[in-house]
Predict the structure of Glycoside hydrolase.
Amino acid sequence: MNLKIKYLYALTISFLMTSQSGFSQSAKGALPQIKVSKNQHYFVTENEKPFFWLGDTGWLTFGKLDRAGVDKYFKDRKEKGFNVIQVMVLHNINAVNVYGNSALINEDVSKPLITAGNNFNNKQEYDYWDHVDYTLEVARKNGIYLAMVPVWGTNVSKGNKINKEQATAYAKFLADRYKNKTNVIWLNGGDTHGNEFMDIWNAIGNTLKTNNPNQLVTFHPFGRTDSSENYHNASWLDFNMFQSGHRRYDQDSSKTNFKEDNYKFVLRDFELKPIKPSLDGEPSYEGIPHGLHDTLQPKWTASDVRRYGYWSVFSGAAGYTYGHNAVMQMFRKGDKPAYGNKELWTSAINAPGAKQMVYIKKLMEEFPFLEGIPDPSLIVNQGEKYDYIPAIKGEKYALLYTYNGRIIEVKLGKISGDKFEAIWYNPRNGKKTKIGTFDNKGTQNFQPAGKNEDGNDWVLILRSIK
């Protein structure tokens, strides 16, 4: 049977078997569908339970991990509190997974190479897409959602290897295959400029959203850009995602973007109409050189990924995505290193920053964060760059963050109650230290423990007393 006939046969069988295949349909115990909250700034489950997005960038999972690797990775991320993994469906149009299975026929995205069935014990009945199915099922069992990039942006932007018709057909294939998967979220684009090849990105976005209206769709853009800049009003875009990028202040010569100040993306998006959630889908990765390409530069550390997390979330972001240099490329023995990485992914999953991300999630889940409104005016002694202090408040609470242990001078009376309790929260270990009870008026200074230096970060919790 030649490839063309095999493809047509398999495609027919795939559609006919969609309702019968355990991996093509939502399995027993499906995760609740994620949707936008009623105030449109955050996420909730289908039964209105608050959902704080804590993501990891496992971009090359489908291509580089075998089944044992998939099991190990998702088990670890569940234990560390992650609930979303961002992954590329196709890194390249010549994508082949660890089992030697090609994703496409003749590198044509409109022609997925599929076989009938998905018998994981018989390699002749196990293809690239079955491995994607397997990974989705493992993710489901671990309570994790997959935010999937249909095809990485360079496949469109460099050489324009994909036309609109092919893109539409491919998106329809994905929509049909995963239409009943409740743990699927779509990241259109993929590290690409939103103002280029808009016909293709709109075709993919519209096709995914039209066929599966309950699955969330966004756009993952190029560094220091935001989906809201080109697609905020697109009917297929449910929430905004920006990539704050990997460069230091002094490495960024652009005069029009926000540099390291990722909170500025969120504050801007928070005020846009129509209202849509926003989050940082790719800040600086732990363990990657400043600016990416010069391996002699210092590497971003756990304190940096914490800073990006708290800066953005305390500015109204609906969540945060962490990343590590080794994990994002699933670096294995024998792989050609990128961005100066020398660490195996199996070791890097235990990096300090990865372990500390759970504390931002736990903190937000402790409060009714769906009512959170960013309010920088809470800070009397506001600073710039690493001195910046973000603040978010609800009716009976406020959360403020200092990256370098500087005094926080708070303008009071912005939450309810005549008095409030103040508490220090340590982002490195999640421990709390009570400060005291104060009158809720005037201003008040709070001095964290330790030296005034980058990385001595603290969260100040203010909680109303009835």
Residues 375-465 form a domain with the Immunoglobulin-like fold (CATH 2.60.40.1180). Residues 1-27 have pLDDT under 50 and may be disordered. The two ends are 75 Å apart (CA to CA). The CA atoms of residues 12 and 436 lie 68 Å apart.
